[in-house]
## 1
Amino acid sequence: MFKALLGVALSLTAISCTVQESAAPTGAWFKGNTHTHTLWSDGDGAPEVSVAWYKEHGYQFLVLSDHNVFQDTERWFPVSEDGKKRLKPAELQQIIDQFGADAVQVREVDGKREMRLLTLKDLKARFEVNEQFLLIPGEEVTASFEGHPVHINAVNIAEVIPALKGESVAGLLNDTMDAITAHGVEHDRSVLAHLNHPNFGWGLTWEEVASMRSERFFEVYNGHQGVRNHGDESHPSIEEMWDRAQVLRLTELELPLLFGVATDDAHNYHGAPTAQTGRGWIMVKADSLEGNEIVDAMKRGDFYASSGVTLVDVQRGETEYRVEIETVIETSYTTRFIGTRADSEGLDGVGEVLLETTENPAVYTYKGDELYVRAVVTSSKDHPNPYAKGDKEMAWTQPIQVAPTQ
């Protein structure tokens, strides 16, 4: 079955290797999260609480990606005086204590208190610092088909992008991606779309993930504890989906490499453990801290995903793939170079470990028969606030295509 899917059955003696080399990226590393929620949709934190947390914890950019909304209108959020809904009196007081009474607008309507939600313009004026901290406009374009959730983050947008309806999961996925791409063209800005948590609600199959035609980003790691990163007996893990989709894209579908992002999908700021801040993020190497620059660097693949491991450098070169790790005392690191060989047959040959090493830098020399190569670095250190019990701190780098020709 899978041999036909691959569309290749190459003799190793007949292979020559041409690598789509990634030029060594210039610039600085910027840490950011592209998937975050607030009271503007289904988060439990005021937008200023969310933004302040990320800025205070060393992030350089943040995308507030509330569901099907752009934070550009006046909105007042009700205070739940009985404490049964999201904005409780104690949490309102925490906001006042944190930012000062003059910075929080509260009014009373028909005997009930409401708090004004800060807009993106308000937040930018309060928190942004040139070349130090940036808010990139975003939205989680949220739809479904016959109970299958299709959630796609639109990054660096200019206004809300309406959710669509589709005639299939793959159709809805691609129509939404196309609409986000068209939005970027219409507004003359670099816009990026990434597919979120494909195993959430078992929403998408790996074949549907592979089908993205106008974009090539998806979440390989999401910190929300309800999204089923690790799969189950009947469903592959997200990382397994990545490799299966990669092969299908490069062969039968003739689509470009699929890139993986990590996010924390934060919803909870007041103690609930389900979707907390700081579980996953991306590190982007860009020339400057500006929305178009961040998106353009990601489109080049000049970034990696992380749940705790920091990398000094990633070089996807002409003859070798090189990963240098920033080490922490009393911590060991294992790097696995993952790929699929052109003559693989069956799912067992997809996403195999090409090399496992504890060397730093970790270096893999191409053999010439790999469709693609990527790297995963796993720390011996437990994640301090894990998606799932037992998770280690990790990093995922982007693949490079090693194109065999006869």
## 2
Amino acid sequence: MNPFRYGCVVEGEYFCPRPELERQLRAFAESGQNVVIQGERRMGKTSLIRHAVGGMRRMRMVYADLYCIRTAGDFCRRVMGGIARADDRMPFLRKAMSLVHRLRPALSFDPSTGAPQISVDARAAESPEAPGTVMEMLRKIAEGGQTCVVFDEFQDILDLEGAEGILAEMRSSIQFQAGTPYFFSGSVRNDMARIFDDSGSPFFKSAVPFTVGAIERGTFARFVAERFRKGGRQVDMDTAGALVDYADGVSGDVQEICEAIWDTTEAGARVTVEDVPKALKLVFSREGAAFGETVRQLTPLQTAVLRALAEEGTEGVFSGTFMQRVGTTSTGGLRTALGRLVARRIVYPYGGRYRFANPFFKVWLRTEL
């Protein structure tokens, strides 16, 4: 069995321990402190939160992933899903459902796993008062014991119609829950800043900032080497460190390239950096169609900018050389193209430069397009 996991929450032996960050998050949860957790994509924020808080005794975790929510109804359904997963005891589920009776909840069980599921009436969930009803439910179910509420990809709440009003209502409820920690996790830095750093936002300075960066190189390299050994492959520490560097230390990307290397090598093999190209071919066979579709949806200028970023780096993007490379004399046009690539989350600004959200897309652009 492949010893690496990516594209999902990693747990157990697949999770690379981060003791200090875990300790800090548990301390925040125990003290009832609200926390805004930020980090770039695939840095392992969700796995870290679920490992740290989910492993606490006597702490119930209500986890709601708000990624790509588009309506208030989506918000309500995601939270109710988190409630159903937080505690499968019937008294708890019945209490939660009674608190949102206006949303006409219904309890069912997954036919495959037997896990409880709570659905709500679609029309009722879209009513203006529905998010407030759900927030009031969270407040009441947390009264009887320790509960940590986690809103993942929280910045996507800005995409809702009437987002400012919803945020205001949420803040109004949360500020009176002194004993209940709320963790707000997000991967789009500018949007999270709009919510927590803008003085006009209801959530201005309402939570302690907490940054999740790359795992320390030596720690991650040791983890990589141990996982390869567990999977019947050998790798020295220099090679393990090079694999970490290749994916910029991004947890999910490191796991992905290592997973592909394991799949393209034989049992007992000694892994080297020379195994990377073959592994990349496997990655491209899986993701190449999606990469191609992304390019097809871009304008010619956006495509030219993206290829130049992949081939020439991201410094001096407004230099004459770069503009000549992409075929434009318009600084405004180039700025608009970059803005669209950022808005589509293909690249993002980082330290005065632009980084690819998916480093394998960058390599694909250089080698396959």
## 3
Amino acid sequence: LAPLDGRELRLERLERYFEDFITRTAGLPALKEERARARLQLAEITLAKGDPKTAAQRLEEALAYAPDLPSGPDLELRLATDKLLMALLLQKRNDPGASVAFETARKALEAVPQAEVDSDRLQELLAVLGYHESRLLAAEGKDALAYDTLRQSTEILNRLVAQRPDSVGRRAELAECFLSSATILDGFGEMGTAREVRARASEELVKLLQKDPGNLDLRMDLAGCYGAMAEAALLAGDTGTTESMSKAATKLLEEVMSQRPENAEARSCLAAQHSTMAGLLRDRGDAVSAAKLVDEGILLVEAISVGESADPLAKYRLALLLWQKGRQQGAEDKLAEEISLESRSADLLRKLGNSDYGLVRSEQIRRSLGYLLGDLGHAAQRSENHELAAAAFGEAVNVWSILNRERPQNEEYEEGLAWSQKRLKEL
């Protein structure tokens, strides 16, 4: 299907050809096998066109006429592949039927006799299925199951890539698995392991970039790896790695920005690197340069964070930068400015609400809000605004309580709740 993907005119001509063939030969029993094959090809063309409703209908018809085709493992593999493509299409359209479709596809793929088909291709399809299934599981909050599914997919793709290191498609799939695994590990609080996994992903992406140096999407993915590694290194106190990874990410992002200046993701990621480097410079005592970087980061995302159609990732990044600038003001005893900036940041995080936005999960947003409210309450307390302090600490207690219910026995969330309760009680 890959050569057909996106070629609308060719797909429409093929569609008309097979529809016409089925109609013209309807009364010819001798051509029932050819008609059955045409129905299957028609279903595959509709899948390639990205029309889930018609594709589901035509695939059902093709399966009904499948007994007219020569039976065997090759046909089983083809039909199972089509079921996987159907599931992927439903997932792409955010269709609630995607989960059931993946289960159907898995059963079909696992029923194909490996010894009688291209077993590597079959394993690759199962790995791709596992990767996409894990995304659904992660969206449902089933992180442990999602990670286990991803790990199995990663092991399969690792082996296949080792056998065929020139396979660009498999290497790209492997890099995606590593990146998704790292995101889930971050959610577990396994920062060190996530960092190692991102390092593996970056290795795969570098190899892909060597084959396709002009690919800006690959540069974005690699910059994302380096940026996340820089942030993790900063939390671990590894300032050398923080600086080198952040500079590598910034270089890639500036290359992307030079060709896609309005790209929201690139602007948000570059702003994130300004934030990371600002934190590093602040720790080194260079408050002036740190403040300048934060201001530059705010300018990068402020313009694309306004209005109903504003980019959610940019809004989240702007909230974090305003919070960072507020803390900088507070460190200079400019408490009114700190309260103003942190209040604005809290409003942005509240408006982002409980929804997932691709790279930013609702849990991550609420976690940030919990910490921010603690800082806001502390700033209000220092400025003797006890009403605002009580409101901030009280809301923080509520945020951490919800997070604790969703992820019981999480040490970080338990500590966040205990700290907020203590500050509220002290008021």
